[in-house]
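Is this the right way to post structure tokens for a design question? Let me know if I should format differently. Anyway, here goes:
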């Protein structure tokens, strides 16, 4: 049992500050166990390993695992699902009606949602991850949190369990339909006075708009809020933090990034150092792989983030290709935690190919963030299957700060030309609701070639 002074900073100090060599030994032990379990209990992995010419006995080191076991992608499961009619794509490894506690689906950001399940033990272990990350970000017993979520998302169950464990009271509000429900959010924030706001940036933006229309002071609305937890599938850039601070008065050091990948139950968040998102290495093995060759990369190198769940019983996830581009860092964080941290640049599918150069949404935010009235709500348009000559953007702006839309568009085009050396076309929409959505996320790259 941890003493109170240690709990001020760590939920589980022994695990969170474990020496790297011990973490890596533990990971290898769990990788071998999960490999053996998946191979003998799931039709998909039995078939996949056979096609790759590998068995669990061939994996003796982490490097063996990195180089011999194939990366698993959503499309692999979709193909298997189409072939067999199995909604789990051959991954379900326990009796559905006996041991499965929850069945959920991913958001479907890049296509048809993936279906996954977890047992009671899966749920409780994922809740341990959630509790650590909440505590790290400053959530404390008896806090009142205003949380907006999507009821069908697998994270909601885990998050609620984490609240119960820490003894936090949650005002659990649904997110949709926006912007109509935002007025109710404003009223609840005004009278309940939460210490924590937790929800996607889209919800916050809708609350800002609704508060202005209702004549409510946004800073007063957030005056009780000690910290803001946001992200939830969107990249929290410095630009985003500056805009949140300008609207709410909450300083950037108390605005935390939180996100994850639903399929393998992998979630992450940053600490007070804001130097990358922490993950739980005793529960997951995370590494960046080269986008083309699929070779494992060294700490800090940019590639595709690949995640292995080290505890899953219901639907094992070995080397799940997240399709997110980023880096994984193994160096000890300034907060004292020794587990790896990741930084994510964006979903590979959301990068625009302009004359052979990949332009990510985060690039746009970092370049345009200083222009008055810029918001993170924009969509790049993919109008060609190959490289495009011009970057086309549809953007929602802060209309209170954009008095001359044509001058705003000129500034955007000038900045993009200066920083990326690309020509651009800019369309300003009336509201963020006019942009395309998937779930709670604005589509950052809209593929017009699929509409033809």
């Amino acid at each position: 049992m941890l003493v109170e002074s240690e709990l001020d900073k760590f939920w589980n100090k022994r695990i969170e500050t474990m020496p790297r060599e011990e973490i890596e030994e533990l990971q290898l032990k769990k990788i071998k166990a999960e490999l053996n379990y998946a191979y003998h209990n799931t039709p998909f992995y039995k078939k996949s390993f056979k096609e790759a010419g590998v068995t669990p006995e061939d994996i003796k080191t982490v490097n063996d695992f990195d180089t011999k076991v194939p990366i698993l992608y959503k499309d692999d499961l979709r193909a298997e699902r189409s072939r067999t009619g199995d909604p789990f794509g051959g991954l379900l490894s326990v009796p559905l009606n006996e041991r499965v506690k929850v069945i959920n689906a991913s958001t479907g950001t890049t296509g048809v949602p993936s279906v996954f399940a977890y047992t009671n033990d899966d749920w409780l272990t994922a809740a341990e991850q959630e509790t650590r990350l909440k505590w790290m970000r400053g959530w404390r017993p008896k806090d009142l949190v205003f949380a907006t979520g999507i009821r069908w998302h697998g994270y909601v169950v885990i998050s609620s369990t984490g609240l119960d464990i820490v003894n936090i009271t949650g005002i659990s509000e649904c997110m949709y339909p926006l912007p109509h429900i935002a007025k109710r959010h404003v009223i609840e924030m005004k009278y309940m006075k939460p210490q924590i706001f937790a929800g996607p940036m889209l919800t916050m933006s809708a609350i800002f708009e609704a508060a202005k229309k209702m004549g409510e002071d946004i800073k007063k609305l957030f005056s009780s809020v000690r910290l803001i937890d946001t992200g939830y599938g969107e990249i929290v850039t410095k630009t985003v933090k500056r805009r949140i601070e300008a609207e709410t008065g909450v300083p950037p050091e108390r605005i935390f990034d939180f996100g994850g990948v639903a399929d393998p139950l992998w979630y992450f968040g940053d600490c007070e150092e804001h130097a990358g998102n922490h993950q739980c290495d005793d529960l997951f093995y995370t590494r960046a792989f080269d986008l083309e060759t699929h070779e494992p990369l060294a700490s800090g190198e940019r590639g595709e983030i690949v995640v292995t769940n080290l505890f899953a019983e219901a639907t094992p996830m070995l080397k799940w290709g997240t399709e997110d581009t980023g880096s994984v860092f193994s160096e000890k964080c300034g907060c004292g935690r020794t587990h790896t941290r990741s930084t994510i640049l964006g979903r590979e599918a959301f990068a625009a190919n302009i004359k052979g150069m990949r332009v990510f949404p985060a690039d746009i935010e970092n370049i345009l963030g200083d222009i008055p009235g810029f918001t993170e709500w924009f969509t790049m348009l993919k109008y060609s299957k190959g490289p495009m000559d011009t970057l086309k953007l549809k953007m929602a702006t802060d209309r209170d700060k954009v008095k001359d839309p044509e001058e705003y568009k000129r500034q955007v085009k000038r900045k993009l030309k200066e920083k990326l050396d690309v020509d651009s076309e800019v369309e300003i929409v009336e509201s963020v609701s006019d942009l395309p959505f998937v779930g709670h996320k604005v589509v950052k790259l809209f593929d017009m070639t699929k509409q033809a």
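Format looks fine. Someone answered above. Worth noting: The radius of gyration is 22 Å. The first helix runs from residue 4 to 7.
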